[in-house]
Amino acid sequence: KAGVTQTPRYLIKTRGQQVTLSCSPISGHRSVSWYQQTPGQGLQFLFEYFSETQRNKGNFPGRFSGRQFSNSRSEMNVSTLELGDSALYLCASSPGLADLYEQYFGPGTRLTVT
Amino acid sequence: AQKVTQAQTEISVVEKEDVTLDCVYETRDTTYYLFWYKQPPSGELVFLIRRNSFDEQNEISGRYSWNFQKSTSSFNFTITASQVVDSAVYFCALSEAWDDYKLSFGAGTTVTVRA
């Protein structure tokens, strides 16, 4: 079974621009979570989607948004990029509501904002 | 408040030595899961072990073992006979039922195994 895939793997953007990251969960998994990892703040939860609905959200500004499609693939969008948004963005997929604790992570997208 | 505390920032050992990583957690929930993840330089978080709050049995899986003690809210992890390939950042994480099982991570412990 293929693992969680994230595209692109690396991205360089300029302050003020916006960016969209993509995550394809493991086949059959219906929940997708996003995490941000920075040297200063560590790993922090962004949001979680299940069946196209955002069910949980972390403490991030409204510039961070996401969505999930009917095939469970998910995208996250960051608008008006700031230097502090430079981070590794990790996506994790889970089978479903009864198995949310089983989270499998993708390789991440490393975003650099200049 | 920090839910997961990993007091050790860095640990350096010589190959074949044992390495024990400390993790202390905080939760009011009765149903929760504890995890250890490994993050090599490539960046991907690799799942190592998971324990639920109802099972305090400590086990050994290959070179990995863990010590889960609810009385002290600790979930320590040991690598026996370390190898250079074990060099990575190790994260302890907590997942609580009341919070839809989102993961709260500790700050991580960087383990360096020298040949």
Question: Order of SSEs of chain A, N→C?
Answer: EEEEEEEEEEE
Query: What sequence of helices (H) and strands (E) makes up the elements of chain B?
Result: EEEEEEEEEEEE
DSSP summary, beta strand count of chain B = 12
**Cα distance, first to last residue of chain A?**
37 Å
The termini of chain B sit apart by 38 Å
Q: How many helices of chain B does DSSP assign?
A: 0
Strand content of chain A: over 45%
| Range of strand content of chain B | over 45%
What number is the mean pLDDT of chain B?
91
Largest interface: A-B, 24 and 23 residues
The oligomeric state of the chains shown is heterodimer
Helix content of chain A: under 10%
Number of strands of chain A: 11
Quickly count the helices of chain A: 0
Instruction: Note the main sheet of chain B.
Output: 6 strands, mixed
**Which residues of chain B form runs of ≥5 with pLDDT under 50?**
none
Describe this structure as you would to a colleague.
- The complex is a heterodimer of chains A (114) and B (115).
- With 114 residues, chain A is mostly beta strands.
- Chain A has strands spanning 5-7, 10-13, 19-24, 31-38, 42-50, 53-57, 64-68, 74-78, 87-94, 104-105, 109-113.
- In chain A, the strands form two sheets. In chain A, strands 2, 4, 5, 6, 9, 10 and 11 form a seven-stranded mixed beta sheet that branches.
- Chain A is globular.
- The termini of chain A are far apart.
- With 115 residues, chain B is mainly beta.
- In chain B, strand 10 and strand 11 form a beta hairpin.
Task: Provide a concise account of the structure shown.
Chain A is mainly β and 114 residues long. Chain A is built from no helices and eleven strands. Helices cover 0% and strands 53% of the residues of chain A.
Name the features.
heterodimer, A: 114 residues, mainly beta, seven-stranded mixed β-sheet, four-stranded antiparallel β-sheet, 11 strands, 53% strand, B: 115 residues, six-stranded mixed β-sheet, 0% helix, 51% strand
